[in-house]
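Continued from yesterday's entry.
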Amino acid sequence: MLVQHDPDRPNGFIAIRGSHLLVSPFQAGQLHCPGGEFDLESYRGDTFRLYLDDDGSLSSDKNRDHFWLLVEAVLPSPRYVNVDTGRTDANGSTLFESRLAPLDLDDPEIQVVAFPLPEVA
C-alpha cells in the first residue's frame, strides 16, 4: 500500500500495478524524469529504495549518492503455498508442490516521499 510521506503534498507520480512500481514522467523546474517501471519481485525480504538523480534518471543503486529519495519499501520475505498437482502417489494420497506465492504489495507500507519541494521546483 502506498503511504504518502507528506499527505498535504502527495506525490501522484508513483503507482503500483501487480508487483511493479510505476513512476510517471514528470518535470520539476529544469529537471525532467522520463519515468520508469520497476519489478519488485527480486527485492523480496529486502528494502527497496528508488532514487531520483540530478540528471532526471531513476536508480535503485544503494551504493552511491543520489539527489532525492522517492520511494522506500521493506518487502516481505518470499512466501510459498502448496498447490494440488492433480496426481496421487501409490498410496492414493494427493501430491502437492510448493510454489512461490505472488508478491502482495497491499500489506507492506511503501513510503512515497514528497517531490518536488517548493525550493527545488
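--- second protein ---
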Amino acid sequence: MVRSIIARAATVLTLAMAVIGQASAAHATDAAKPPLDVLGTLKAELDYRQRTWYLTARGEESESGFTGVDGSSSVTLFGNATPEGYSNVKDSLRISFDVLLMEGALVARNVAIRYTPANLANPYTAQRESVTRLRVDHVEMTDDTLIVSGSFHSELDFQPGLNMLLGGNLSPTGGAGLIAGALTEGERKTRDLVDGQFIAEIPRKR
C-alpha cells in the first residue's frame, strides 16, 4: 500500500516537472525572440468603424517590405490588428502595390487590398479597379528602407473560398490552420467599404 502511494506520488511529481519544463522552455523561447517593432500603421474606416492596423517587425523579419529601385518599387503593407501582433492573419489588412515615378508624379499600379476577418478561407478583396483608388503622397528610399505614405479607398467583396467548397460548414471555432475560425453564414456580408491612410518605414525584402 505504502509503495503504491509512493509510486503514484512519484508519477505525479514526474508529470508536474515535465509540465514545468515545457513551460520554462516556451518562456525561454519567447524571451529569446527579438522584441516587436512597429514600422507604421494603416488607419481606415472599415464597415463604418474607425480602425488601426499595425505593421510590425521582429528583428529583420517582417511581412511588410519592398523590392525595386528608386522610381520603381513594389510595396507590401501587412497590418496586424494589435501592435503585439506579428504575421497574424486573423483581422488583418494587407495592401500591396507598385509605385512608379512618371514625369515627376508618383503613380500606383497593380493595387491589391485584402481584409481577412477570420482566416484565408474568408477574405474580402478589392476586385473592381473602377472603385479601387490608391494614392501615394510620399516615397523616400535608402538602400535598406522605404518611407511611404498615402491613402486608399475601395469596396471589398467577400471571397467564399474554402467556405463555399465545403458547403459553408466550416466551424467558427473548430479546425486548425487556414480553416480555423471561419465565418458563419450570419457573420458573412457581401461587401465592405474601406477608406483610409497609410504611413510606414519598411525594410527591403531579401
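Helices lie at 2-32, 161-165. Confidence is low (pLDDT under 50) at residues 22-29, 164-181. Will compare against the first tomorrow.
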